[in-house]
C-alpha cells in the first residue's frame, strides 16, 4: 500500500518521479542508441533494395544480347510479308515469294433441327444416354495428337459442350444457331504429315454421332459432316522452294509472317535498330547516374549530433510539427562516410573506366562509344553520353557494343560491363545483408539484429532494476509517513494527557 504525504504533506509521487529521472538517464541513452540503430538499419536496407532493383534491371536489359541485336527490317511489300528481328546476330536480306498461305483444317457438322445453344443433350434426337465424345486433332508437329475423351451429363447444354471442347482439345468449335451446325477449326495450321487421306480432325463416340460430327461427307446430304484439310504455307525463300505448317515462323533469328500470296518477289533487308539500342544505353546511364547521386548523398548527408532520438517523455512536451522537424535532423547522416558505400562508389568508377576484350582480340571501353565520366568533380563519377558517337558505334558494329556490355564472364575474363556490374552489386548486397539483414530475416542472422537484440535485453533488465528501485523508494517514503504519523499520534496523546 502506497501512502502519499498524509502525514508530511509532501508530494511523494512527484518527489519519487524526480528522483527516478536521474536513474533513467542511462536507460534513455540505450533507448536512443537503439532507435538510431533501427534508423540506420532501415537506411542500409533501403540502399540495398535500390541496388538490387537496378542490378536486376541492368541484367534484364544491358546483360542480354537481344537488347543489342534489335533490328529494323525494310520490306518492299509489308502488306504481304512481315519480318521482325528476335535474336539475330547477323543482318538479314533477300527475297521471298509466297505461293500459298498455311490454312487450318476444319470440320463442319450436319444440321441439328430445332436446337439452340441452351438445348440440353438429353433433348437431342438420337440421344440414348451416351455421354462421351472423343476429339483428336493435328498438333504443332503436324501429327495427330493424343485422343481427348470428354464426358458430359444429360443436362449439359450445347454451349457447355462447346466450351469444354475449346478448353481441353486441339480444336476451336462454335455452334451456329442460324444453320443449326457445329463447326470446328484445328488450333494448329498446316497439312497432316504422312497419309494425305487421313483427316487432321477426328471425332469419335456416340455423342459425336448425335451432334452429327462423324461419318462420311455426302455432297447431296446437308446433314453429313464436311471436312476440309489444312495446307502448309508454300514459298520461295532466296531461290529455295520450301514449306512451313504455319504462316509465322523463324529463320536466322528473324520472325517471318506471311500475309498474302504474291505474284512478284518481296525484297527485304535488315539493319540495327539504332534508336532502340541507344534508348536502352541512355536508360542504363540515367539509372546509373541516379544511383551514384543517391549513394553520394547518403555518405555526405550531414550528421546533427545535438539532435538525438526523442524519448516518449520528451515527445509529450512537444508539438507534432516540432517532433517531425527534430527527427528529420536526428535521422540525418546515419550512413555518413560509410566505408562499404564509399568502397562501392570507388569500384563502380573503376568499372566504368575499364576495358573489355572483344572476341576478335580488340579492347573496347565506354569511352570509345561516347560515354565518359563528367569532368566536374562535383558530379562524383556520373557519366555523360555523346549520342552521335554512340549511334556511330552501334551502326558500325552492334556486336562489339553488345560484347562491351554483355560479354559472358569466364575463369580468365571478367566479362562485359553489365556482367561485372551485376557481380559488384552482388558483393555489396551480401555485405549489407550480413550487416543489416533484410525484411523478415531473423535478428540472430545479421550483425545489427544481434546488436538490437542485446539492447532490448539491456532495456528489459534496466526496466526491472528501475521498477525495483522505485518500489524501494515508495517503501521508504511509506515507512517515513507511517513513522511520522505514529509520532504525531503519540504527540497528540501526550498533549491530551497534559491538558487533563
TrEMBL record:
Pfam families, A to Z: Flagellin_IN, FliD_C, FliD_N
Domain Flagellar hook-associated protein 2 N-terminal, residue spans: 8-104
Domain of life: Bacteria
Boundaries of every Flagellar hook-associated protein 2 C-terminal domain copy: 230-489
GO terms for biological process, alphabetical: bacterial-type flagellum-dependent cell motility; cell adhesion
Cell location: Secreted; Bacterial flagellum
Protein name from the UniProt record: Flagellar hook-associated protein 2
Species assigned in the record: Sporosarcina thermotolerans
Organism ancestry: Bacteria, Bacillati, Bacillota, Bacilli, Bacillales
